[in-house]
């Protein structure tokens, strides 16, 4: 039962009578009468009783301690609004003040843009410690999520229980242990703000961390090692502060010992320059947090790209101009500022005092060595209830917090003490200085804790998943089978890992030694919204149902690996190559009341050797060990099988904590308990011995468990993985670990794949990637066309132009910059190709400086050979490419490319601009249908081979205007590229027909394939006419093509030197003479008179 306020929901009438035995230093008696007794009250009172038992001033009533401890209040004015700051009147870590001040300063504080969660009576000058603790408790309970899933409720309530138990210790200190991280293999992003765990937020998880999580207060530190110090990073990467001290004590390596000692001594202030930089990058402007430094907790804020800590020393109570202190250096040379972060004054004396205070509170490595000699560690079964990765129960952790010095006064209330230990510190060892053996009274009543898996995902798996999502699954949101593994040889400093590697999608018949496969499912969703809204309660229920069915059907007896499964949910953002994932590893909450009957005992060397052989024979599957004989699990169904004291269940245990079993035991225990209970003949099993076999450095142990079984097994289960101690998905950014070129290619390709998945399933994207484009003219149109083609995945470009870039080009031609026009200007074609490669380095782009010969531009004898080489080069370019864009600035310059593309049956697209209009024309491409007669039923369609070229429409087509409206080029180039896209998707590609009337939108998957697109910006209208090839066209007409075929370059020379020669060859001169003669005959006066 949860109460609205555990500090207000009860009426206390507590009388504490104590006398002091000066020799023993322990309390003799306590009397306590409580009107209403419940779980929350127990969890609240036990730490108080413990603290009183440890206190040296027992003559004071317990709650009198709170009543007499008052905190002073300082009121600061921020733009006319007063805010309270609680001051510190005695030395100590006092996380209570840091938390309270964060809650007070959140809100309408214009410089710190959060929401204020508590307030103090305006004008009050002091507040009791008890009242502050009530505020914290109120805030914790008020922040309980309203829409929390039932499956997550037990985890949340456990966290809430742990946090409430910590409240009385807030004035004195919290168990916080910094976890050092370098550039380890588990962190893939180069950007510190995108790390899986930001280095300034890395702590070993304890209930204290849960306190800050529930209150939504960032907890940070600035003890960060510079990434340049690779040797030190390698040495302490992944270690906590406690582990570093332990390593100094235990290591025999003098060089490592020196490095570690030097590190602790040189950074005694627990703040580094690198730490300040990363604090700045991890805090948003206006954000407020708690800074942990030298076992002190300070209120930290970022404002205007600077860090400040709140000044709470009593000496500044009357100094209204001193509210914050800068945090911009590590030598204590700070500046005091007022409530709006303006400099008030700087005091070197105060700065020095602050530095001395830090040095007094810092602890050197030598101090820790002395402390370790005084520590007595309990048996492993009495140690941490909820373990962490950097904790080996057999060796213990040097950093110890004693909760009791006197057992005698509490042995009458073991149930109360048991609850307290369940809310105890996650990582530090719970130890007793006296009566360690009497703790066995409590041990039998403590629930067994299982070490949960931490999902470790190989980065190559994400690459494989991304490829399958792109190529195979597409928009499909169905789960797919994968296989993960765990092993029983991970070191004690590692997490208990469930590994998902790059070959997780493959089906294997054999696995490596000491590797246990786990079959599961992966669900890759399409959007982040879908990922957030997944019914995770139902997913867990379905996974648990699968395990339950396996147990009830007895399938697990033949294949025990069926008891373990997982369900990995992923949102792969393949544009950014980031992945959000959350893994569910279900464990049934059956049987009930599982407890440990005795301390774990280490496996003997003889038995270890036998099991090593037996477990290899059973392929890492569980089995029974009767005496020294391996027996199949199916034996437990036999009526003759007696579960004697020498029967052990052996399984490969992945736990890296010696005294705690791993996650696979949960479902194995459920299966054994259920099968023996429902057996009508043998309903005898209520306890069993399990061998947690580990083949690595963590010792194997035997644990003796008891439970209360029933014949009904339900789907109640837990299993959603915790990240940093909270139920939330993990995030990984692989952009920093991937080749940027590959990432660029994948991201660009994904845009096109999304078109195919969501809009046009039958689109052929391969045609775009294979397309080779020749762009004649690298000006405004050429740059824009190339940029648009990039969007369709075109990767092969050749620019042809002979001009240089001028300053007037830069503003209109998108592939050029200011520097390209300097010093006479760079060559357009070459620079355009370079600019395109800067956008996408994976494309093939070439620039060719070439001046295209034109009709009427005479060629001298000396120039003939050079011009012939140019013509030959242009012919080769057209032949090597699939489509040619005619984006030249004059009609004459388009003639030769039109002639060549028609002759070589290549697709050509001309774009011409006027001031406020444009035309896009695709030239006809001859094919096998050239000589076919058009059927009568298709009179409204012109075959692709019969479509006219630019010169067939020469009378109506605009020539390139030297001046045009700025938006015309973008519209025209876009229309040209989209026309090409539609034509490429047609079965006949360049030979696709065009309709005379209304376009057929179903011609291709991208719509119609018109012959021409004419746009008039002054009227904002567009039309798509179709023109049949003109038989006497000067470029694509049959006579001209025949002459070019037969005479080659000599024909071109005649055209270059005499433009009238084209009219002669094409027959236009005869047509013109006929037209004139017809005009004369029609308007002859004599003929008119005679006709009257």
TrEMBL record:
Residue ranges annotated for the THIF-type NAD/FAD binding fold domain, each copy included: 753-988
Highest taxon in the source lineage: Eukaryota
InterPro entries: Atg7, Atg7_N, Atg7_N_1, Atg7_N_2, MINDY, MINDY_domain, ThiF_NAD_FAD-bd, Ubiquitin-activating_enz
Coiled-coil intervals, chain numbering: none
UniProt KW Protein transport keyword: yes
Residue span(s) of domain Ubiquitin-like modifier-activating enzyme Atg7 N-terminal: 448-736
Protein family according to the UniProt entry: Belongs to the ATG7 family. Belongs to the MINDY deubiquitinase family. FAM63 subfamily.
Protein name: Ubiquitin-like modifier-activating enzyme ATG7
